[in-house]
Specification:
This protein is of the alpha/beta class. Among the domains are: 31-148, no CATH class; 152-211 and 496-531, no CATH class; 573-618, no CATH class. Helix content is 39%, strand content 15%. The protein has 18 helices and 17 strands. It has helices spanning 59-63, 116-122, 150-165, 173-183, 221-241, 253-265, 302-305, 338-368, 374-402, 424-427, 430-436, 442-448, 452-462, 468-479, 534-543, 558-571, 575-600, 605-618; strands spanning 5-7, 24-26, 33-37, 68-74, 83-91, 96-109, 133-145, 168-169, 193-197, 203-207, 245-250, 276-277, 294-299, 313-316, 321-323, 498-501, 515-516. A five-stranded antiparallel beta sheet has the order 3-4-7-6-5. Helix 8 runs antiparallel to helix 9 (374-402) and helix 9 (374-402) crosses helix 14. The protein starts with a strand and ends with a helix.
């Protein structure tokens, strides 16, 4: 079928000759008369920017990617349900990500608040009966975080939205917002599970994020597999690995962001280097005409307004159809290396079937379940995370297999870096690496080694990089054989300790006062103005760059600790190997403290660095 169309699988041609004929239809939103405006911020909390987390100026565009609209509806039209969406912003020169969770809804606008020009535009011809129509505008409430707690924030945003629609309350919405941001601690080793009670029937949970040796992301691998299936997942993998122009679209904005983030993660250890906007505002879609690869997600309503360039590959998450551009018709999953692809396809097929069974089971349990215990929420979260890791591990195993032995082709740096010495051909033996692969895969690897992300990968393996820990983990994955797990949850320190936080109290508010809302409009005076807790301030200072500059690590990651423990167990049986293990540990500890020592003792720095060089030569 044509792109973005669904096909009724019934041939209308009953004859023996002639082409097959099918009816195709397009899913689209019903668009009434409307005026579109550029979105802006009505209110915010905190009211002023914090040094560690300033508010990105582009947030309104991503909260309402199709624009702020004023719409004319028939009076009989029902109010649509609020829509949850997610987006990802890159800040600090693309060094950090900010994750946005948003709920969009409509509010009624009294006709007397509109200008005569607006009324005329919304009622072309001027024949409409004012009593037969209502005027409505879309609004959005959004939470920003450096952590992708999408599910938790969705529940919170829907809770405060429902508060604005339902009766009167003894505690205002503003207090719930400041309570979440100022009183709820971040999950940690000491308190791995946080439960915030919002009302007798509503609660949200936070769990300590897993310390995995992989980049943090808001990827939804279950959504990726469920919406695309195994075959189209392979097609998407090929398109990303060969840096094609990719346009992912859906009418479900939260699924769109989750799949786009997953697409950027399935290529680890590579990192997408080209323009990347998981949920692109309609005002920025001119990027689709850029003369370079991109990975962009848009609302499917974009196709009602415009058509993408002919060289763009479109991925429709609602119909599970990937449409190739005219110049890309020869791209096919058969390009991928044969044996690793067969293993990956079998694994994805198995996980796809398992995912269907889990969803059916979850649906049945939710309708019959009477277990509303706290542990049930946390156990469900744990199961979901385990399944996410299973899917991610399948792609990681594929990447580790096709890049196995790549370190043998890294070239040593024998002189001071210049333009020539940092060129990929000076850092990596591309020809020998390509020839070492299976002959039938030559075309695939010929495309991959020319991509920007492969070039960046070789540079990061040759010089100091902020991805050193993740790349060292990947090197271990390439050396592993058999069916052992590459990714798993660390259960050794798993704790069921839960911190229970009560709903906010009306402290400092007038007694016997109730709060009613006519729409979602907040009063800045009703927010609680407490200072953030000192523990959260300390965490902010650390996350804001409290490490010693140039230091590879402020502390060892869980993966490094686990690797050191495995190595120690292996060498403990031999006195000679055990002695070497202890010596290596001493050297590691000395070099870990070296950057801090140099910073604190500037006068001794030259001699210390000479000693470090002599140590490296001796090792």
């Amino acid at each position: 079928p044509p792109h973005a169309f669904c096909m009724i699988n019934k041939n209308l041609n009953k004859g023996l000759v002639g082409a097959d004929i099918f009816i195709c239809y397009k899913k689209s939103m019903n668009r009434p008369s409307l005026i579109t405006y550029k979105p802006g911020i009505l209110s915010r909390y905190p009211h002023q920017d914090q040094d560690s987390f300033p508010l990105p100026m582009s947030v309104p565009l991503f909260c309402l990617p199709m624009g702020a609209t004023l719409e004319l509806w028939p009076v009989s039209a029902s109010q649509p349900d609020p829509v949850f969406s997610t987006f990802v912003l890159t800040v600090s020169d693309a060094a950090q990500k900010v994750y946005g969770s948003a709920v969009t809804f409509y509010e009624r606008v009294p006709p007397d608040k509109l200008t005569s020009e607006q009324l005329k535009k919304l009622d072309p011809g001027g024949q409409g009966d004012v009593a037969a129509f209502t005027y409505n505008t879309n609004k959005c409430i959004c939470l920003l975080s450096r952590w992708p707690f999408f599910d938790t924030f969705e529940k919170f945003l829907l809770f405060i939205y429902n508060m604005s629609c339902e009766g009167s309350h003894s505690v205002p919405i503003e207090r719930y917002i400041s309570h979440l941001l100022e009183e709820v601690p971040f999950p940690s080793v000491q308190r791995p599970r946080i439960l915030l009670q919002l009302s007798p029937d509503d609660r949200i949970i936070f769990t300590q994020p897993e310390d995995l040796p992989l980049p943090r992301s808001g990827a939804g691998f279950r959504q990726l597999l469920m919406n695309l299936g195994s075959e189209n997942c392979l097609m998407l993998l090929l398109c990303v690995l060969t840096e094609q122009k990719l346009l992912v679209h859906s009418l479900r904005p939260d699924v769109l962001t989750a799949v786009a983030e997953a697409a950027s993660m399935i290529i680890f250890p590579f990192k997408w280097q080209c323009p990347y906007i998981p949920l692109c505002p309609i005002s920025l879609v001119e990027l689709l005409h850029a003369p370079l690869p991109f990975l962009i997600g848009v609302d499917s309503r974009f196709f009602d307004l415009s058509e993408p360039p002919r060289d763009v590959i479109c991925v429709d998450l609602d119909t599970n159809i990937i449409t190739l551009g005219e110049s890309k018709l020869n791209i096919h999953p058969s390009f991928l290396p044969k044996k690793p692809t067969r293993v990956l396809r079998n694994c994805l097929d198995r996980l796809h079937q398992k995912l269907h069974l889990l969803l059916q089971s979850a649906t049945t349990q939710s309708s019959n379940n009477t277990d509303h215990s706290i542990d049930n929420d946390f156990q469900l979260k744990r199961k979901e995370l385990n399944f996410e890791l299973e899917i991610q591990e399948a792609f990681l195993r594929f990447m580790a297999t096709i890049l196995r032995g790549y370190r043998n082709y890294l070239l040593p740096i024998i002189k001071a870096p210049t333009v020539g010495t940092t060129d990929t051909n000076s850092l990596f033996n591309l020809k020998a690496f390509t020839l070492s692969r299976d002959r039938s895969d030559t075309k695939f690897f010929g495309l991959v080694v020319k991509t920007q992300m492969f070039i960046r990968f070789i540079e990061e393996r040759s010089f100091v990089s902020d991805m050193d820990a993740g790349l060292a983990f990947f090197d271990e994955c390439t050396e592993k054989d058999g069916e052992g797990r590459l990714l798993d949850l660390d259960e050794s320190h798993h704790s069921e300790r839960t911190v229970f936080i009560m709903p906010p109290e009306p402290t400092g508010l007038p007694s016997n006062t109730t709060y009613t809302y006519q729409g979602f409009t907040l009063n800045p005076l009703l927010f609680s103005h407490k200072e953030p807790k000192s523990l959260l301030k300390a965490a902010t200072r650390l996350s804001g760059g409290g490490m010693a500059p140039g230091s590879p690590m402020a502390r060892r990651t869980k993966h490094e600790i686990k690797s050191a423990q495995k190595l120690a167990k292996k060498y403990a049986s031999s006195p000679e190997l055990w002695a070497k293990c202890l010596l290596g540990t001493c050297y590691s500890l000395w070099f870990i403290h070296l950057p801090s020592f140099v910073l604190m003792s500037q006068t001794k720095a030259p001699g210390t660095l000479r000693n470090a060089q002599e140590l490296l030569v001796r090792i």
